[in-house]
Amino acid sequence: MMEQVNLGLVGGGTVGGGVWQALQRNGDLMAARLGLRLNVTRMAVRDPRRTRGFTVPASVLTGDWSEVVHDPKVQIVVELMGGVTTAREVVRAALKLGKPVVTANKALLSAHGPELFALAAKHQTNLYYEAAVAGGIPIIKALRESFAGNRITRIAGIVNGTCNYILTRMKLEGAEFSDVLADAQRLGYAEAEPSLDVDGHDAAHKIGILASLAHGFWVRPETIHTEGIRHISKLDIQFAAQLGYTIKLLGIIQPIATPGSSQPKTKKKTAGDGQNPAIQVSVYPALVPNTHVLASVNHAFNAVAVRGDTVGDTLFYGRGAGQDPTASSILGDLADAALDLRAGNHHRVPPFVSHNGQGKVAPMDSISSRFYVRLDVSDRPGVFARIATVLAGAKIGISSIIQPEGHTGETVPVILMLDAASNLSVRKALAIIGKLPVVKSSPVVLRVENFD
Ligand code: NAP
Ligand code: HSE
């Protein structure tokens, strides 16, 4: 008889249902590959009587998560309920029993990762979370294991499927934000609370996890500069397209120059020279040149570009949200967890190793980039001169000014493409420009990423 490993699922929604169905479909294949069979013994849901798109025997289903966690037959607990309150209790209870936990819950890890990792170590078990970042893309394994011999000099990624789906359809179809968000919810991409997606928090949770793994200190979510996509209009998407760019919600992680230190451009400056540059860890919508591969990542696909000092440039691409891709990552973690269980070695790859006591996140105001600015201005002579005077006073160069034709009325849009400048100086200059009598609404400001 083949060895069997018993799983307890807490959550049978989009992801939990995907895991259940994928195990029905590919359980024999996994058993052949692993030499052990994964068997869902219990599944907790909020409402066991609800009709689902798949059938689970009544003996397996329960409405009480603690029955699953405390069932002596359950060897691995899979937390797929989401949220940070009850989910934290579930994970803590399982770890305290010495049971390995597999989770897709990036919000939970972002908020309580260090506590849960310490608890896993204390109880000689492990926590696996490949599905928490970028859906079906194996980026956690890549950073923790495959790139162990690299200093990571940049990560730039599209890590929220919902936002990418919305921005793609707004660009390709001229669709309205709210209609497309409803579709993303129907397709199972969005979080139960979709403001987590559209306000950038979900991407920040994921980028924080990647930054922590890449730079060896746990990045707290409140230190991550986070902007969402609510304010992105069809107008900006169209103007960006005319300029040769596509607007994407990007996560950026990179060491940056701090005052008094030189920009860490080369291997020599970032690696082993005693400096410990602060790390930019940020999420914001940005103009990506259409010539860059990230501009062509569409719909719910995600992509993470990782640059290491040894490997050079790499790119991870795949479906970043939805039932099957996320289930794929959970199954991969279950394979690892079951094999570790059989080997009696839960600490072969610990969930997170802190190795940079000096690590810190750079304040956003210290970070420089190019900017796209759209102003709604009075249609009369002298307007450009007033705006240019403020920018010149702030020593911010203008690389182009466009007043697109075909806009008539009391106000017209003006698009400024600014040379690289610090966030602080642009913020201050735009606060002054926004108060000029000729400027009729708050400036729309987006960064322009050239990935130099
Ligand atoms: P979901 O569809 O809302 O499913 C949540 C499941 O948890 C449901 O089955 C629900 O029961 C159950 N549940 C809620 N509260 C419970 C409680 N107190 N006790 C027992 N069960 C409870 O959410 P999802 O999209 O599968 O997401 C689950 C997790 O995966 C989240 O952390 C999410 O961030 C993460 N994730 C999602 C995706 C994605 O594309 N959807 C991708 C990666 C990661 P009922 O079915 O009875 O309501
Ligand atoms: N809501 C998330 C997204 C699910 O849209 O990317 C995948 O983590």
Account of the 3D structure:
With 452 residues, the chain is an alpha/beta fold. The chain folds into three domains: 126 residues, NAD(P)-binding Rossmann-like Domain (Rossmann fold), CATH 3.40.50; 178 residues, 2-Layer Sandwich (Dihydrodipicolinate Reductase, domain 2), CATH 3.30.360; 82 residues, 2-Layer Sandwich (Alpha-Beta Plaits), CATH 3.30.70. 36% of the residues lie in helices and 24% in strands. The chain is built from 14 helices and 16 strands. About 3% of the residues have low confidence. The protein binds NADP nicotinamide-adenine-dinucleotide phosphate (NAP) and L-homoserine (HSE).
Reading the helices and strands in chain order gives: EHEEHEHEHEHEHHHHEHEHEEEHEHEEHE
The CATH architecture name of the largest domain reads 2-Layer Sandwich
Q: What is the CATH superfamily of the largest domain?
A: Dihydrodipicolinate Reductase, domain 2
Overall shape: elongated
Largest sheet: 10 strands, mixed
Low-confidence stretches: 260-274
| Gap from first CA to last CA | 57 Å
**Total beta strands:** 16
Q: What are the distinct ligands in this entry?
A: NADP nicotinamide-adenine-dinucleotide phosphate, L-homoserine
The averaged pLDDT comes out at 94
Q: How much helix, percentage-wise, in residues?
A: 25-40%
CA-based gyration radius: 24 Å
**Total number of domains:** 3
Can you identify the CATH class of the largest domain?
Alpha Beta
Number of helices: 14
In what range is the share of β-strand residues?
Answer: 15-25%
Helix-strand makeup class = alpha/beta
CATH topology of the largest domain: Dihydrodipicolinate Reductase, domain 2
